[in-house]
Design the sequence.
C-alpha cells in the first residue's frame, strides 16, 4: 500500500556506504530525516549493503526495512518521485524495475507544469471560500472536479498565472452512458476514463469486469442495474455492453 510519510526530524537508519548509500542519504536529507546508525532507535531503515543478517536484526526489532537492490528482503520500497512541492507524484514497481520507474518519472516531469505546486497551494488557501460557495460537500467536490477536469478552468496540466479566481456552478444532476466493449481497462476511451474518474456513482451490469470498475474513485457508489429509477445528484455514469 503506497503511503506518504512525514520524516522531518524523525530518525531513519541508513546502513552502508558508496553510491547507493549516498543517493539514499540525499533523499532522506531532502525529506528532513534525522539519519542514524543501525544500533539506534528508528521505525524505518535503509540498508545499502549486502548484509542479510543486519536486515534480520533490524526486522527482529520491529523496524521496517528497505534493502537496496534486494526486493525480496524489503518491507517497503522507495519510489521514483516527481516533485512539484507540495505535490508529489510517486512511481513504484514494487522493486521489480527501478529503471521503468525512472523512465516514467522522466515522462511525467515533462508533462506536469512547473507551477502545479502553486495551483495546489492556491486551492488549499481557497478551501474556506469553496466551503462558503458550496456548503454541500458533494456539490463542492463536483465543482472542484469540473474545475480540474481536462479543459476545465483549472486543468492541472496547464499553467495558471492566477488560479482560483472564480468558481462556476457545476451541474447538480448529470447522467452519462458509456459503452464498454472490452474487459481490458487499457482499452477504455479517453472519455470513458475521464467520466469514471469523476463519477459519483457507477451503474453497471453484474458481469462488469472489476478492472473496469477499479478505474472509478474508491468512494464512488457502485449500483448493479441497467439504469437508476430516478435522476440522482451529481454525475452518474451508466456502463453498458455493446
Sequence:
Amino acid at each position: 500500500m503506497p503511503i506518504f510519510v512525514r520524516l522531518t526530524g524523525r530518525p531513519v537508519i541508513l546502513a552502508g556506504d558508496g553510491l547507493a548509500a549516498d543517493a539514499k542519504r540525499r533523499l532522506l536529507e531532502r525529506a528532513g530525516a534525522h539519519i542514524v546508525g543501525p544500533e539506534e532507535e528508528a521505525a524505518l531503515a535503509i540498508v545499502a549493503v549486502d548484509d542479510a543478517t543486519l536486515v534480520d536484526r533490524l526486522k527482529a526489532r520491529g523496524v521496517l526495512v528497505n534493502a537496496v537492490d534486494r526486493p525480496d528482503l524489503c518491507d517497503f520500497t522507495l519510489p521514483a518521485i516527481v516533485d512539484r512541492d507540495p505535490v508529489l507524484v510517486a512511481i513504484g514497481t514494487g522493486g521489480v524495475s527501478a529503471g521503468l520507474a525512472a523512465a516514467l518519472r522522466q515522462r511525467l516531469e515533462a508533462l506536469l507544469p512547473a507551477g502545479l505546486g502553486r495551483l495546489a497551494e492556491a486551492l488549499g488557501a481557497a478551501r474556506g471560500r469553496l466551503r462558503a460557495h458550496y456548503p454541500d460537500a458533494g456539490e463542492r467536490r463536483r465543482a472542484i472536479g469540473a474545475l480540474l477536469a481536462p479543459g476545465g478552468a483549472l486543468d492541472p496540466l496547464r499553467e495558471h498565472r492566477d488560479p482560483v479566481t472564480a468558481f462556476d456552478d457545476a451541474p447538480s444532476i448529470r447522467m452519462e452512458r458509456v459503452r464498454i466493449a472490452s474487459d481490458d481497462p487499457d482499452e477504455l476511451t479517453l472519455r470513458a476514463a475521464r467520466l469514471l474518474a469523476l463519477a459519483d456513482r457507477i451503474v453497471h451490469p453484474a458481469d462488469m469486469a472489476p478492472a473496469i470498475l477499479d478505474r472509478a474513485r474508491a468512494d464512488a457508489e457502485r449500483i448493479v442495474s441497467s439504469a437508476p429509477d430516478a435522476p440522482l445528484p451529481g454525475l452518474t455514469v451508466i456502463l453498458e455492453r455493446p
The chain has four domains: 1-78, 80-112, 114-170, 173-240. The helical segments are 19-30, 52-60, 98-111, 116-125, 127-133, 137-148, 190-198, 210-213. Strands lie at 11-15, 34-36, 44-47, 64-67, 80-84, 87-91, 173-179, 201-204, 221-224, 234-240. The CA atoms of residues 83 and 89 lie 7 Å apart.
